[in-house]
Amino acid sequence: MKSQFNLISRPYITEKVLLMKEEGNKVVFKIRKDTNKIELKNAIESIFNVTVQNINTLVVKGKKKRLGRHEGKRSDWKKAIVTLKEGDTIEYFEGA
């Protein structure tokens, strides 16, 4: 069985995500590719002590990269957009 703490890799922070947090009370996480929405909802509610209203997940395809004549590819990864109940928040940084 998977541990709840291993399902979430890290928060995903960009300018667009910070706007989503302010306007729609949404937070975004990088998660394991084999995680489903039910496991993720239970993990977020127990770890952060918040109420989850909705979860949208998507798989982000890795980009092709070159270094000289060698070609490679970054790994694919999974992103979860979590909508929290009004009034609930998850702070990314201490003192923010």
Strand content: 35-45%
Order the strands across the largest sheet as they lie in space.
1-2-6-3
Q: Return the string of H and E elements.
A: HEHEHEEEE
CATH architecture: 2-Layer Sandwich
Number of strands: 6
**Count of helix runs:** 3
Structure description:
With 96 residues, the protein is α+β, with helices and mostly antiparallel strands. It has one domain: 2-Layer Sandwich (Alpha-Beta Plaits), CATH 3.30.70.330. It has three helices and six strands, in the order αβαβαββββ. The strands form two sheets. Strands 1-2-6-3 form a four-stranded antiparallel sheet. It has a two-stranded antiparallel ribbon with strand order 4-5. It is globular, with a radius of gyration of 15 Å. The termini are far apart.
Secondary structure blueprint with pairings:
Layout: H1 4-7, E1 8-11, H2 15-24, E2 26-31, H3 37-48, E3 52-60, E4 64-67, E5 70-73, E6 77-84
Antiparallel strand pairs: 1-2, 2-6, 3-6, 4-5
